[in-house]
Design a protein that fits this description.
187 residues; alpha+beta; globular
Length: 187
Amino acid sequence: MSQPPYLSGQLLLSMPGIGDPRFERVVIAMCLHDDDGALGIVANKPFGDLTVRDLMAQLDVDPGVTPAETLVMAGGPVEPSRGFVVHSADYQRQSTISVGDRWGLTSTIDILTDIAAGKGPRRWLSALGYTGWGAGQLDTEMLRHGWQAAPGDADILFDVPRDDRWATAYDRLGIAVGRLSAESGRA
């Protein structure tokens, strides 16, 4: 069995009919993927109506200049009480994981205080939880047609409206989402 390429710095798009409602029409910013497993952050499903300002209040962080309407994303089903910020590569802290030159991932409270103070990354999205796979698990799921890899266009994460990210990412691949089927076939 051949192994798919490592997906760090790419977007992972769910295929229609993936079979898990938590992952229907999701866009995942892949932050880590190697022989030990994979970690990504869902970038288009809100964590209810929780705003970043609400989250900051829970953490006793003065929201400062943080935009009022910015929703927290449901980053995935793993550790939903743990916070993450996927952000533009212009921001770097000691705890930041650089994902090539595409974006960074920071999970310390420092980034929230920097965002509130206007010293954070230029573009960002926050999430609670992450999506994780054990060694070889994502590779197997991709071979079973549950996921589609797409270029890691940061503008899809940060500039495209949340509800349009999935279709936009497919569109950039030249795939019309209306023509996708939940049924797979064999040649």
